[in-house]
Each structure stands twice: as structure tokens, then as C-alpha cells.
Design a protein that fits this description.
The chain is an alpha+beta fold and 85 residues long. The chain has a single domain (2-79), classed as Alpha-Beta Plaits (2-Layer Sandwich), CATH 3.30.70.120. Helices cover 36% and strands 24% of the residues. The protein contains 3 helices and 4 strands. A 4-stranded antiparallel beta sheet has the order 2-3-1-4. The longest helix is centred in the middle third of the chain and has 14 residues, at 23-36. The chain is globular, with a radius of gyration of 13 Å. It starts with a helix and ends in a 6-residue tail after the last strand.
């Protein structure tokens, strides 16, 4: 669990979590997501900054933690959502 704490120590509810994954890690995540029929806000796109890698985006801390623990990752970042007003 310390690995998750290292990655998401300053996370606050509602932050957008970006997980940089290899092709194999991303494939494993998507297989898991489809097989288990999880309900979550998950999007995937190719990384612009790291060719050959993929970025999984979610606001679900539970889902991000699962990916970090069970599928691995290359990097994790997160940011506050934009405030309207």
C-alpha cells in the first residue's frame, strides 16, 4: 500500500488522475475492466509526450489504486479539476 501512498499522497477527492502505462499494462487494464464490467469514469488515449505509451484517466481513487497495485504503471500524476465561474 505504500506504493499507492507514494503515488497519490496529496490526492484530494475530485482530482483527475492520469496513469501512464505501457501497451501491455494498458491492455491488461482494459481486459480487467471489460471482464469484470466495472462502472467507472475511465478514458484512454495515446501519450503525446511518451510515444508508445498510453494514458488512462479517471477520477476514481479506487480504480486508480487497483491499476497501480495489479497492473503496474510508468508514472502517475493528478490535477485539480478546473473551476467554473
Amino acid at each position: 500500500m505504500s506504493e499507492v501512498n507514494d503515488c497519490l499522497g496529496d490526492y484530494e477527492k475530485g482530482d483527475i488522475i492520469y496513469l501512464l502505462l505501457s501497451k501491455e499494462q494498458c491492455s491488461s487494464v482494459l481486459d480487467d475492466w471489460m471482464e469484470c464490467n466495472y462502472t467507472c469514469d475511465l478514458s484512454v488515449h495515446r501519450s503525446i509526450k511518451t510515444p508508445g505509451s498510453y494514458v488512462v484517466t479517471t477520477k476514481s481513487l479506487m480504480w486508480a489504486t487497483r491499476i497501480i497495485k495489479w497492473h503496474g504503471y510508468q508514472n502517475v500524476t493528478y490535477k485539480k479539476p478546473k473551476k467554473h465561474g
